[in-house]
Amino acid sequence: MKLLMVDDEEYVVESIRKNVDWERQGIDEIYSASSMKQAQRIMEMVPIDIIISDIVMPRQSGFDFIQWVRDNKYTVQVIFLTSYAEFDYARHAIAMNSVDYLLKPIDYDKLAAAVGRAAEKVKEARTTEPRAGCGGRTSHFCAGIFGRNCCGGIFRALLYYPMRRRRSFCFCISRSMTV
Question: I need a labelling partner for 53 at 20 to 30 A (CA). Which of 95, 110, 128, 151 fits?
Fold first, then answer.
């Protein structure tokens, strides 16, 4: 599974990276971003399964980022981190269907448990995923190469052309090829 950490404090990202047994949680690849813009770029290029995001960051918040993730129909599990024990943050995290809401300083055992729960949800989603259509695991709806939903599935790739024009194509990948 692939995990994305979003936090503007690099030392937080590094301490999380070093203090959690990722292999035990089923995490194969870890990506990090220090801003919403960087995180969006990663999400557009890599099929992320779990996001750990700080809430309070310069310019845009972790809530803004996860709202963008939800609006773009990415299927991911989310864990929020924050230094602020505010009820409104917890309420908002619950409303965004997050797996957990943890306070800094980070309790690494609690974080590992939250990642474990998120990984289980990812596995559940994969086993209950419909086998018809593309079977891809990101939630961009298939636009097809003819500008319509050609197979009722989900497309797995975005091709980027010069000048940042984005084109979507349907690649009907069998279930056995998904990660």
Answer: 128
